[in-house]
Amino acid sequence: MSELDDHHTTLRERLRTIIFGTSTRAGWLFDVVLLLVIVASVANLMLISVAGIRARIGDWLDTAEWVFTVVFTIEYLTRIAVARRPMAYIRSFYGLVDLVSILPMYVAIFIPASHFFIAIRVLRVARMFRVLKLGHYDSDLQMLRRSLMEAQRKLQIFMGMLALFVTVLGAIMYVVEGPEHGFTSIPRAIYWGVVTITTVGYGDISPATPLGQAIAGVAILIGYAVLAVTTGIITATLTNELRNDRQGIFCPHCERSGHEKDASYCRFCGGDLDEDPEDEEVENEEQAEAREKLD
Fold this sequence. Notes:
mainly alpha, Helix Hairpins, 2 domains, about 0% strand, flat
């Protein structure tokens, strides 16, 4: 019985290494195959959404979709079985993505009206982030997050002023243009203001009077300024965060900063960035005392 338990434990450890890591050739091969299956499943979903293609080979596409769903279901259950902390995986971001990517197909069996819900399967694309190991860029993502958090207050104030401006602009255009030109209400006029300020310009509503067109021209110019201001705020905070991040690593020997995060040696004096100069001095003194005793 113990040999059987040891065999199961060994198999579980081996599967965990293959599924959750790429330190082995088998793990790398698993990720490559999984990536190809994800791409194929997303492409299949896109073909299903095209009416002409679905009319010709819809049965084949549906069969392929079920094959993909079964494969992802087996993978999901296997991840739960071999994970060291199954509940932590289930509640994690990727665990939820894995579940949501397979759940709609099973829901559609019992609730046919939920066919539109199947489109959520496109979330399988998010699984590529794990396969491609984009987690290596976690430190850069954290830097971007800190930059946005630092700029949050400035952006909130600016967006509040922008919302006030768009509301006033909508009210003015409602009075100037009126319902006869498509500005049937203040909310609809505000919608026009948002579309104009963001330089989208759908064209479903447009001013017809000279005064309204002049106001629209000013709003368009302000829209370009809005883009410049928001971009400037985020760029400034990101630059500041990057500068702080680079200056955070300094050499304990020459006390100069400006090193990369993964640097091991100083680019100015060549000293070890992880070494304490005081420990080095103590070590040198001990070596000197040892030489004196030998002499």
